[in-house]
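Here is an idea for our session: we take a single protein and study its fold together. To get us started, please write out a protein record for me. Start from the sequence, derive the backbone structure tokens from it, and show both lines together. Go ahead whenever you are ready, and we will take it from there:
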Amino acid sequence: MDSEDDMHDANDSADDDFYSGGEAGLAASDDGDGDYDFADHDSDDSPELLSHRQQQNYCILSEAGIKQRQEDDINRVSTVLSISKSEACVLLRSYNWSVSKVHDEWFVDEERVRKVVGFPEKRIEMPNDRELACGICFENCPHASMSAAACGHPFCSVCWRGYISTAINDGPGCLMLRCPDPSCAAAVGQDMINSLANEEDKEKYGRYLRRSYIEDNRKTKWCPAPGCEYAVEFVVGSGSYDVNCNCSYGFCWNCTEEAHRPVDCATVSKWILKNSAESENMNWILANSKPCPKCKRPIEKNQGCMHITCTPPCKFEFCWLCLGSWSEHGERTGGFYACNRYEAARQEGAYDESERRREMAKNSLERYTHYYERWAANQSSRQKALGDLQSLQNDKLEKLSDIQSQPESQLKFIIEAWLQIVECRRVLKWTYAYGYYLPEHEHAKRQFFEYLQGEAESGLERLHQCAEKELQIYLEAESPSKDFNDFRTKLAGLTSVTRNYFENLVRALETGLNDVGPSTSQSTGIKNTTSKSLGGKSKSGKNRASAAGSKSGSSSRGVDDSNIWTCDQCTYVNPRSAKACQACDHQHR
């Protein structure tokens, strides 16, 4: 968590009306232009918003759930098409476990489907002889020890077992197993696997079948978290791609990277590639080093005079400024800390191109470093918040329940606050990737975005401080605190308001800040109604301190304090017309 000074900085910004529901906040415009309403005008979540949050367009499947769904699909196809379960399984596997596609293809051209998947028109029985010759080992075996697929080609049990075992050990291709006869394409179903294979091979085959049900089905995917065995069934085209697995890992269904709203998958891909690529290393080398004039190895100079000696085996001595041999330098060229030759050549433009390249590389590196450090800092803060949440759930909540003489069921508001902090840290982290790729020439959008980002940081710090430092007071108390219910009201109010703000922020960024018009000279370019709601100057999120650390000043936005009042209980900033706090219902005196 940030330092105490940072917390004071967050609290000092309360009059910046991050939560304002009046004219000073990001309220909806009077002219109905549909500007972003980041204000929480209603202390309780609206039914529409609750419905939006509770609407889950995916289902988490355990191993038992996967098996049950698979069996249900097999039974459905078997019943409708009047075929065996083993044949239904082969059929579904051939059509990527799509029941509707199997039905469509089967009823359009059953003969073609049978040919494709390896179902003979009629099952051919083995000859009813007392002994039959195995088609693999060519030995005569008793009829009872021979088996055949629907094609009727007989093979002994030993050869079948070896054939099946080899196929299963070769991998998932065993799911499309065919008759051992080279000229036959008849399918070998799960019924034969179960009757002929050993227990280990049957277990492997079952795992491959369940994996196939998830990996070949376009509606299902495995959770990408390491060691997680849950799968997710998703309703494609039903809104957000964010999925929260039962293992507590959140990821994007579309790209399987960690959940990254409000940033799209393409931007996330570019950002991750940039973080892992060598391009920024080269930029750093270009910005902070110069090549040895002799061996061309990059050299960084971080202190000392201009006399540079390359490392062995080169050992070339040269001037850092002009890169000329040091043997040609001395008092007449400026001594150890200057170079007259360099100054003269620079005035003639000899170093313009190289200096320009170095400057561009330096600016690019500084810009990337700015966003990356804040992205990484919020990730670090999120991990710490997850650790704090785990600690709270494991022992602190029980301790607090004993101290305050309240059941744990009535302390869920603390868990909800920490869950919201974790989610907000994730959103805030990805806003820095969003900001990095926001076009430089769109000054109005950039200014508006940085304002919203700064407000989000301020509000999140306020919630984080309340959930961490103020909670600690009650954890260290020796007896029930009289003002614990006030703390409950305050924390619940901050949680609700912060949640609403971040949800609105995400929606605004996902729509590309469409209400921001084109910029003009020295103008924010924001629509007049939005400009009025901002109340003047904007606070730059780009220059604010990150979640991990340092403070930066914030500019005033010219808010008229006569139009607002701050709640004593939860620090929510309310319009003057409100009789009670819109976050906690505390009456205004």
Q: What stands out?
A: The radius of gyration is 34 Å. Residues 16 and 462 are 12 Å apart (CA to CA).
